[in-house]
Amino acid sequence: MHGEAYHHKAKKSLGQNFLTDQNICRRIVDAIAPGPTDTIIEIGPGQGALTGFIAQAHPARFSVIELDDGLADRLEGAYPDIEVIRADALRFPWESLNAGERCKIVGNLPYNVGSKLIWDIVSRVQTLDRAVFMVQHEVALRLTAEPGCKAYGGLTAWVRNFADTRYLFKVPPTVFRPQPKVDSAVVAFVPRPVGEWPRSPQALDRLIKMLFQKRRKQLSNILKPLWSQEIENWFASQGISPMARPETLSPQQFLELSALI
């Protein structure tokens, strides 16, 4: 499979950069830890760099989501026991997984869609047991950032209301074909209990986008049209100055404030 698929021409439109380093592949698969009772979904398997190692663990159910028909054909031929879903992961109905067993999701995500996919998956898959994704290094830093630092942003505040994140390791451009111009990194996600998820994700989404679209402005200025005594009391109870900027709020504080807006 690896030798035959190596000549597949990467499609820039699909953000394809094929991972070729076997040691890194093993480290990613070790992080997702596939077992014989697991349901595994791999996003964008490409030439099967991770697929082969996952298949060797003989999970109870193994599905891959691949948009490229040529690569999907090769995967079906090389791994007849796995389910190949020919689909765009951005349009995949992630909520459909909630009717099944708990699952683990893994993938080397294209840089151009990685943030959006993670935003959707962590907030829609209630049966998620664990996820491990390789993303652009800059995105990995945002996913694992703490409040108050430059990397902390809307993606951080959203994801951390649904899952805890952990930066695992950095991946250099030299292990891909073709080589990207930037570093990558692998991040692990452990979902929070569904009972702790936001009761109104829509309100949280609105607040995060409202504040981080004007992240250089003070919170009191951004929220001026919505300001109320209740909001003022909340700031006082949290010990936060209304003159602070959005990146000073923790994910939990974003959640609490969204309930007042």
From TrEMBL:
Signal peptide: none annotated. It is found in: Cytoplasm. GO terms for molecular function: 16S rRNA (adenine(1518)-N(6)/adenine(1519)-N(6))-dimethyltransferase activity; RNA binding. Gene3D superfamilies: Ribosomal RNA adenine dimethylase-like, domain 2 (1.10.8.100), Vaccinia Virus protein VP39 (3.40.50.150). S-adenosyl-L-methionine binds at residues 17, 19, 44, 66, 88, 108. The keyword Cell cycle does not apply. It comes from the Bacteria. Its EC number is 2.1.1.182. Belongs to the class I-like SAM-binding methyltransferase superfamily. rRNA adenine N(6)-methyltransferase family. RsmA subfamily. This is Ribosomal RNA small subunit methyltransferase A. It comes from Pseudodesulfovibrio aespoeensis (strain ATCC 700646 / DSM 10631 / Aspo-2) (Desulfovibrio aespoeensis). The lineage of its organism: Bacteria, Pseudomonadati, Thermodesulfobacteriota, Desulfovibrionia, Desulfovibrionales. The gene is rsmA.
